[in-house]
Amino acid sequence: MEEHPREDRLRTRLLVIFVGVPGLLLIIWAGGWIYTLFAATVMGLGLYEYLQLLRRGGLTPRITPSFLAAAAFLAAIVYHVGLSGQGHTRDLLGIHIFAIIFLLVLVLQTIEVLDPSPTAWLNVAANVLGVIWVAGFSGCFILVRFAEFPPTYPSADLALRLTLSLYVSVWICDALAYLMGKRFGRRKILPKVSPKKTVVGTLSGLIGALITMLIFGASQVLPGEIFSPLDLIILGLITGGVGQMGDFVESRLKRDFHVKDSGSLLPGHGGVLDRFDSLLFVMPTTYLYLLFIRL
Fold this sequence. Notes:
Elements: H1 3-30, H2 32-56, H3 63-81, H4 90-114, H5 120-145, H6 158-184, H7 199-218, H8 229-256, H9 272-294
Helix pairs in contact: 1-2, 2-3, 2-5, 3-4, 3-5, 4-5, 5-9, 6-7, 6-8, 7-8, 8-9
């Protein structure tokens, strides 16, 4: 009798994968406002889950300022990439982001002075961290998808190719880490943070991410004229290394607040943060790599 609930959960989990993965690939391919709406949904739902975790942990999250700041992040990024008209310089985006963070801190501190709570400064710190981590980092989903490459290889949408490669590499990493860790893993890698993750699983995920990126390079999905073998290795380290660290960070957050999943939006998969924790680290790191090294 105990097998039926487990089989039902597996069936539901597989259904979400078979429907969700092709659907998300189509959204990435479509780009434009469709992909931006997807990123905004991840931003909004992820921030909601985070703020609910704070509430469960005894803090007093300030909902309205947090969502206003997230909306401001989204507006600044949309303005920057040119979806609402002409794109603008990176310097201007940096100024906008600084202004949003400054105003968020100012407003939250003012609220804690006028309407103090027992955990005032923890509230401010946790609120600001959540807005930057969830809203700010998920904004990089858009920045990478609309990154502008030099016109050296004009026949391909390089931003589309790179974005698809990042998602697929993260998925391969997650799948291999889970399967290899479950089958061969013995030694735990960070038992105080994520008791089920093993050294074998983590290394398998990293190797899988590296091989995936090298395959994308060899097949010219990521053209050699733009992405050198070193670039591919670095991108593989980002998806397989930095991405797994994003997973560990979210695992630590859930452990601190004594929850199994960040939410229950996706049956069998938990919440939005559970599904996009790796990409919340991968996309900003990739954007910084493009910004300072490649573009």
